[in-house]
Amino acid sequence: MKRLIFLFLIILTACNSVKQKEQTIENLYDYDIEQRLDSLGITLKVPKLPKGINIALAVKSGNLIYLSGNGPRTNDGVRITGKVGTDLTVEEGYDAARITAINHIAILKSEIGDLNKVVRIVKVLGMVNAESSFTQQPAVINGYTDLMVEVFGERGRHARSAVGMASLPFNLACEVEAIVQVQE
Q1: d(Cα 143, Cα 176) in Å, to the nearest integer?
Q2: 115 near 29, Cβ under 8 Å?
Q3: I want to staple 85 with a disulfide (CB 3.0 to 4.6 A). Which of 58, 62, 134, 167 is the partner?
Q4: What is the DSSP letter of 154?
């Protein structure tokens, strides 16, 4: 009888632990991400890969999604190009990074269906197309970071690197890749 009671207590404890974990994940947001996007006037359209590029926009492994490097391409298909600090101002670079964040959110939605499943934006690598003397890469990539925090709250705050590049594909103003934790 003692063994049966002991076994019952173990099962009960395990069930409560799983239930608490599920409640923690379910309660990550006190708002709906889709509604937040609407309130910000953001429309999602999954970017298409240029012809000849044989990669995936996102790869899921366990509860992590690895987002390929993506750049600022508007919903109209216009690429934001040029070197920040030479052809574009820091503010224009910031806006380009923000557009890149919107593209990543669209890819995430396409990959997981429900953006409320985003547990955390974990790591971001932001690359800025600039001359070697340019040193404001963090100010440019803040456009990406600020939008992620605006949309996902504290779960959007991430570890990040912001670096300068001598050139980027298609002369894009910036390119960003990210790792995102999602609910399984």
Answers
A1: 11
A2: no
A3: 134
A4: G
Give residue-wise pLDDT tens across range 62-87. 999 999 999 999 999 999 999 999 99
- Say if residues 140 and 126 touch (Cβ distance below 8 Å): yes
End-to-end CA, the chain: 38
Check: CB of residue 119 under 8 Å from CB of residue 181: yes
Instruction: Find, among 110, 115, 135, 138, the residue nearest to 125 by Cα.
Output: 138
3-state secondary structure of 179: strand
Q: In whole angstroms, what is the distance from residue 125 CA to residue 115 CA?
A: 21
Question: What pLDDT, on the 0 to 100 scale, is given for residue 120?
Answer: 97
Which secondary-structure segment (H or E) carries 93? Answer: helix 90-112
Predicted TM-score (pTM) of the model is 0.85
Determine the longest span between alpha carbons in the chain, in angstroms.
79
Q: Are 93 and 144 in contact (CB under 8 A)?
A: no
Return the C-alpha torsion angle 85, 89, 93, 99, nearest 10: -150
Residue tagged 């590029």 (tokens): 53
Distance, CA of 73 to CA of 96 (rounded, Å): 8
Query: Which pLDDT belongs to residue 22?
Result: 45
Q: What is the 3-state secondary structure (H, E, C) of 14-64?
A: HHHHHHHHHHHHHCCCCCCHHHHHHHCCCCCCCCCCCCCCCCCCEEEECCE
